Fold MBL fold metallo-hydrolase.
Amino acid sequence: MRPLDDGARHWTEPGIYSVAPGVHRIPLPMPNSGLKAVNVYAIIDGDALTLIDSGWACDEAHEALEKALSGLGAGLGDVSEFLITHVHRDHYTLALPVRREHGTPVALGAREEPALRAVATPGRPPMADQLPLLRRAGGDAVITLLTEAFAATPPPTDDTVWEQPDEWLREGRRRTVGGRTLDVLATPGHTAGHVVFSDRAEGLQFTGDHVLPHITPSVGLHAAPVPLPLRDFLESLRRVRALPDARMLPAHGPTGASVHARVDELLRHHDRRLDDIAHTVSLGAHTAYEVALRLPWTRHETALSDLDPFNQALAVLEVAAHLDLLVARATLTGTDDGVLRTYRA
């Protein structure tokens, strides 16, 4: 008897959790990540098995997925298709070795093509597109910390794990191999090509990283940067809010009762954050780095300097995204001298 996904166990605990008839949540481990796990969802329709997201291409996740599928009476060769919410390594890359071995088709949002092309560039250094943005944000101190961290523990840079999908997903209704109808909705923000999948018949929404129960996803880590990622993210939240409410099936964290309730929380959070950032600029902080130094981070209200280098970089880029949106709204003015971006109230 598979356990119900009722919160009795921590969401990262390995296993197979029944979410709804024919739908199961499979948490897979993530190496070197504070998130600990990513949720892959198995949809069973007769003999067809669709996976929403795939996990990180590493031995530990590969073995955990094989073990979980065996609990469903299936193997990796029985997966009919992968539907991927976005191009990040923990969602996309495990599907690729499975495809090489079993021929399983992989589908990814069409707007991810520029990012996929960027990450697949041979010899591309880690955070190649973010380092210039950090310098523009006044974050040279963070760049130094990142450089030291990368020298001590090099991040994965193997461009051979990145391959093109078999299908570029576009908005609209899509049938799974087993015949279940899913609505594909483009939700740019966290990545340019992020999509969510809505099963209206069952009242379920596979939200990927777009709507998460405990955190707001980063919008500054784009392999192919976009002009106003926070604007895109907030608009995407409102698009999701306009859909019928559904049970939230996120990529990280436990499943939730209401997508609408969490979207409302996220919109309120970013409204407050925009106000706080504008106020911080009025007090004399003029770069994204200076603003980030004055703000608390995470639910524990941690100082920027107490975060690890990668999360310091995410924080500074997050502030930059808020600042650029405030400029676009004419709440602040921004000046770019070609090296540094500064802001004034």
